[in-house]
Amino acid sequence: MALAVLNLTSQTRFSPGQVVMTIGVDELVRQGRLNPVPYLRRHLHGDWGDLSDDDRRLNDAALKSGDDRLFSSYQVTPDLKLWIITEWDRSVTTLLLPSEY
């Protein structure tokens, strides 16, 4: 799926850098079992998904300081969770399954 073609950065809170996905996410996309775009948009807008309040605060602090990575977790279906991690320097954003971490 060509995520780079999409205009994901309009009115976002930070730049994703290069957007990549793991083999597991790519396979789910190819099977039509996952559309990662809405979750990536949520991540880029600072909606961290299903995180504890402490983890949300860590993300918000990292967003302000630029000194740490940004992490989001989304429960897509009862059996499918998607993680999105943007590196501390905002150079790469990776979409992955928890089992691939």
Written overview of the protein:
With 101 residues, the protein is of the alpha+beta class. It is 29% helix and 24% strand. The chain has a four-stranded mixed sheet with strand order 1-4-3-2. The two termini are 21 Å apart. The model has no long low-confidence stretch (mean pLDDT 92). This is Plasmid related protein.
Order of helices and strands: EHHHEEE
Instruction: Summarize the amount of helix as a percent range.
Output: 25-40%
- End-to-end Cα distance, whole Å, is 21 Å
Q: How are the strands of the biggest sheet laid out side by side? A: 1-4-3-2
- Overall shape: it is globular
Instruction: Tell me the fraction of residues in β-strands, as a range.
Output: 15-25%
Biggest beta sheet attributes? 4 strands, mixed
Give Rg in angstroms: 13 Å
Mean pLDDT: 92
| Total number of strands | 4
Q: What's the total helix number?
A: 3
Unreliable stretches covering 5 or more consecutive residues: none
| Structural class by SSE content | alpha+beta
Q: Keyphrases for this structure?
A:
globular, four-stranded mixed sheet, 101 residues, alpha+beta, 29% helix, Plasmid related protein
Summarize the structure.
It comes from Aromatoleum toluolicum. The protein is of the alpha+beta class.
Can you lay out the helices and strands and say which pair or pack?
Layout: E1 18-21, H1 23-30, H2 37-44, H3 53-65, E2 70-77, E3 80-86, E4 92-96
Parallel strand pairs: 1-4
Antiparallel strand pairs: 2-3, 3-4
